[in-house]
């Protein structure tokens, strides 16, 4: 059974940085395309970034381009989201998600409906 555990959230001032981690257990990360999503109070869950089986295959929402970087370390079974120049509007619960890949593909997936497994989320709060 696949489990995802996020960590690294917290309280930071605007302009600061955080690095979120998502550790996968039960299966090797190398078999999964991964995504980060966030949900702010009263808002729908939105895609933040995604990465394919290849680390070079990435997607970013327009709101986080340049500021956020998604990466993966298959040797550590961990996906990261480096968040720089944080803004108050980045405040949300951040979730990681995994989609199994039967065949090798460089596809990335922005839609939440594409993903099979979800973590429990980690809170990110950016103060102004």
Question: Mind explaining what this structure looks like?
Answer:
This protein is mainly beta and 128 residues long. It is built from no helices and eleven strands. Strands 2, 4, 5, 6, 9, 10 and 11 form a seven-stranded mixed β-sheet that branches. Strands 1-3-8-7 form a four-stranded antiparallel β-sheet, with no helix packed on it. A hairpin with a 6-residue loop joins strand 4 and strand 5 (46-51). It is globular, with a radius of gyration of 14 Å. The protein starts with a strand and ends with a strand. The model has no long low-confidence stretch (mean pLDDT 96).
Key features of this structure:
single chain, globular, mainly beta
Briefly, what is this?
With 128 residues, this protein is mainly β.
Share of β-strand residues: over 45%
First-last Cα distance: 40 Å
pLDDT averaged over residues: 96
Taking pLDDT < 50 over at least 5 consecutive residues as the criterion, the unreliable ranges are none
Shape: globular
Order of helices and strands: EEEEEEEEEEE
Helix content: under 10%
Q: Let me know the number of strands.
A: 11
Structural Rg? 14 Å
Structural class call reads: mainly beta
Number of helices, counting only DSSP H or I runs of 4 residues or more: 0
The main β sheet shows up as: 7 strands, mixed
Topology:
Blueprint: E1 3-7, E2 10-13, E3 18-25, E4 32-39, E5 46-51, E6 58-60, E7 68-73, E8 78-83, E9 92-100, E10 117-118, E11 122-127
Parallel strand pairs: 2-11
Antiparallel strand pairs: 1-3, 3-8, 4-5, 4-9, 5-6, 7-8, 9-10, 9-11
């Amino acid at each position: 059974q696949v489990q995802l555990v996020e960590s690294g959230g917290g309280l930071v001032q605007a302009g600061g940085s955080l690095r979120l981690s998502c550790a996968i257990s039960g299966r090797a990360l190398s078999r999964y395309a991964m995504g980060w999503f966030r949900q702010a109070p009263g808002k729908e869950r939105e895609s933040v970034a995604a990465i394919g089986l290849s680390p070079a295959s990435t997607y970013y929402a327009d709101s986080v381009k340049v500021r956020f970087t998604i990466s993966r370390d298959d040797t550590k079974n961990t996906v990261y989201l480096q968040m720089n120049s944080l803004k108050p509007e980045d405040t949300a619960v951040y979730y990681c998600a995994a989609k199994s890949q039967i065949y090798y593909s460089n596809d990335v997936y922005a839609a939440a409906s594409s993903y099979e497994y979800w973590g429990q989320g980690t809170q990110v709060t950016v103060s102004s």
